[in-house]
Amino acid sequence: MPHRRILLKLSGEALLGDSPCGIDPTVLNRIAAEVAEVVAAGTQIALVIGGGNIFRGVGLAGAGMDRVTADQMGMLATVMNALAMQDALERIGVPTRVMSALKINQVCEDYIRRRAVAHLDAGRVALFAAGIGSPFFTTDSAASLRAIEIGADLLIKATKVDGIYSADPVTHPDAVLYPRLTYDRALRENLKVMDATAIVLCRDNQVPLRVMNIYEPGALVRAAAGEDIGSLVES
Ligand code: UDP
Asked: From CA 118, how far away is CA 124, in angstroms rounded?
């Protein structure tokens, strides 16, 4: 396989489907089936899932809640999503481990890099929960950091659009898709790819980043197989 080990970042919103909040089981199961296909094809895969479908710290912090408390609640939301994906994967026979950056030992393992790599080498899907475990960060940054730590050769950011556009394709129908661009250009033009911390981490550690549409059936499997879909951000 062109990619030995990939890290997939799914936003919480990717699990929403048509629901206003929470998890759409149809969407969850479909993504799990694609992850299973990637594993069956021989690529190791780790997941970082956001929490935006349940809770984002910055929202309640804006309404007066202490930001650290709000972000801790956000991190707990990511644990719920990781557990949901673990359940969906194990129901179709894919072995998994959820590893949390916050200690919740009755529910899942702690994140320990060497153990995470061992899980991947043993054919398990590793689900990294609770972001990096610190407030004021996002799961985008967690995805970049974990991708670097585990030596992933590709970070895939799964979104609702086909890749990176010159402008928001929903509000600007004339926006053009960039099949390839540099980290510096993504930063300079403030393109809505990932937050800047995440892009800088990828740039400084040479992790290529592919942005693609998770709602397009088969796209994840094709991206993991090395197909040039969506947008690729690299040096
Ligand atoms: N969060 C955090 N530290 C982290 C990762 C996440 O505090 O390292 C909190 C933060 O409140 C964030 C929430 O968890 O809003 C959910 O993560 P994120 O917004 O990245 O989810 P996504 O937008 O990908 O669904």
From this structure: 9
Judge if the beta carbon of residue 158 lies within 6 A of ligand 1. Answer: no
DSSP code at position 15? G
State the Cα angle at 140 between 170 and 92, rounded to 5°. 90
CATH number at 62 reads: 3.40.1160.10
Question: Which atom of ligand 1 is least distant from the CA of 59?
Answer: 15
Q: What is the ipTM of this complex?
A: 0.99
Report the atom number in ligand 1 closest to the C-alpha of 13.
Answer: 25
> Could you tell me if the CB of 111 is within 6 A of ligand 1?
no
Is residue 107 helix, strand or coil?
Answer: coil
Domain count, the chain: 1
Contact criterion met (CB below 8 Å) for 69 and 45: no
Q: Establish whether residue 132 lines the binding site of ligand 1, counting it when its CB lies within 6 angstroms of any ligand atom.
A: yes
Domain that holds residue 177: 5-234
Ligand 1 centroid to Cα of residue 138, in Å, is 4
pLDDT beyond 80 at 1:
no
Q: Residues with Cβ < 8 Å from 227, sequence gap 6 or more?
A: none
pLDDT digits over 171-186, tens only?
999 999 999 999 999 9
CA 147 to ligand 1 centroid distance, Å = 17
